[in-house]
Amino acid sequence: MVLNSTNASEFTNMTGPNALKMDVNIVMLGTDNVGKSALTVRFLTRRFIGEYGDIESIYSHNVIVDGREIAFGIWDSPYSQERLGGSVTQEKQMQWADGFVLVYSICDRASFNAVARLIQHVKATKDYAGGEKVPIVIVGNKRDLHHRRTVTSEEGRLLALTTDCQFYEVSAAENYHGVLMVFHGLVDRIREARSAVKKPAGIKGIVKSMSAVFTRKRTDSL
Ligand SMILES: Nc1nc2c(ncn2[C@@H]2O[C@H](COP(=O)(O)OP(=O)(O)OP(=O)(O)O)[C@@H](O)[C@H]2O)c(=O)[nH]1
Ligand SMILES: [Mg+2]
C-alpha cells in the first residue's frame, strides 16, 4: 500500500544496471463486486482469499516480464468510494495511470454495460499524447460461474474489437495464469503506446526521413 506519485511514463535508469527497468501504473475500474480486488490480490500474491473489504490501495510490485524488470503500481479502489470520491479522485487516477484494467462479471450484465461506458470515458479523458490509443484491457471475470453467465464471450470479444482494446475472460477464484496474462498483456500495450509516442521524433525525425528520401537511403532502419 505504497503511494508512488512519480511520473511513470519513462524508462528509468537507462544507462545503469537496471537499464531494462520500466515503471507501469495501472488503475482497476469497474462496478462493485466484479472482482477488481480479487484480480489485484491474485496477481500480487497468487492467492484468492474470498473477501477483500472496502480498502482503497495503491500497491507496488516488482516482477520480471519477458526479461525486463517491471515496477508495477496498481490502484484498486472500491466502486462505492469511486462514486463518493467523485471527479477529483477520478481525475487523479486518469493522470497517474499508464493503463487500465476494466473489469466486469460475466454474471452481471449491468457491469458489462458499465465497462462499455467506462471505455468511452477513459478514451475521452485520457488524451494519450494526441490520440495514441490508450492501453486498456477488458476483463470478463468469474468465468468459473459459467452456469450463471449472462454475458457471452462473443459479446466481450466484440466490445474489445470495436473499441480497440484487449480482452480476456478469467476466473480470479480458480486460475492464476489467466490473471497473469491480463497484467502482462497490459504491459505489452503500454510498451507499444510508448514506442508509438517516441517514433515521430518531431522536426528531427522529419528532417531525417526527408534526407533519407532525397539521398535514396534505405528508410527501413529509421
Ligand atoms: N466465483 C467467483 N467469485 C469471485 C471471483 N472474483 C471475485 N469473486 C468474489 O466476488 C466478490 C467481490 O469481489 P471483489 O474483488 O471484492 O470485487 P470488487 O470489484 O473489488 O468490488 P468493490 O471493491 O466493492 O468495488 C467477492 O466475494 C469475491 O470472493 C471469481 O473469479 N469467481
Ligand atoms: Mg474492491
Automatic annotation (TrEMBL):
Its EC number is 3.6.5.2. Keywords: GTP-binding, Hydrolase, Nucleotide-binding. It catalyses: GTP + H2O = GDP + phosphate + H(+). InterPro entries: P-loop_NTPase, Ras-related_GTPase, Small_GTP-bd, Small_GTPase. GO terms for molecular function: G protein activity; GTP binding. PANTHER family: RAS-LIKE FAMILY MEMBER 11. Belongs to the small GTPase superfamily. Ras family. NCBIfam families: small_GTP. This is small monomeric GTPase. It comes from Albula goreensis.
